[in-house]
Amino acid sequence: MEPVFLTKLVSNSNDWLSVRQATIAENIANANTPGFRSKDLEPFTTVISRTQLAMTATHDGHLGQTMEAARKSDVEKADSWTVTHSGNSVSLEQELMKAGEVARDHSLNASIAKSFHRMYLSAVKS
């Protein structure tokens, strides 16, 4: 049986979300600081894709370059919504939307971990 790394993935995702939440909080705290530029982390999918092992095609029917091409597709980053005359680029609306995304993703991770834990318990009880 292959080992299951779901708990490690959820843990890594929660670590990334914690750092992103701290970054968002820093942006909000400096919303009135002249010249402060809003910051954000690169997406978790980018971080995790760097650590994945490459799959080996051992048969002609296996997926090959099509998955690699999909993985390397460019994602455009949107700039901040507003830049004030002081050079500050923090948009409170945008930061609060990001904070909502982080809260939603934390909740999703907790639900996944809870479901996986229940699955383990049901397998052990059977």
TrEMBL record:
- Where would you say this protein principally sits, based on its record? other
GO annotation, cellular component aspect = bacterial-type flagellum basal body
Q: Which residues form the Flagellar basal body rod protein N-terminal domain?
A: 18-37
- Enumerate the UniProt keywords alphabetically: Cell projection, Cilium, Flagellum
Where is this protein localized, as stated in its record? Answer: Bacterial flagellum basal body
Q: Which InterPro entries does its entry note?
A: Flag_bb_rod_N
Protein name listed in UniProt: Flagellar basal-body rod protein B
Organism annotation: Roseibium aggregatum (strain ATCC 25650 / DSM 13394 / JCM 20685 / NBRC 16684 / NCIMB 2208 / IAM 12614 / B1)
What gene name does this entry carry?
flgB
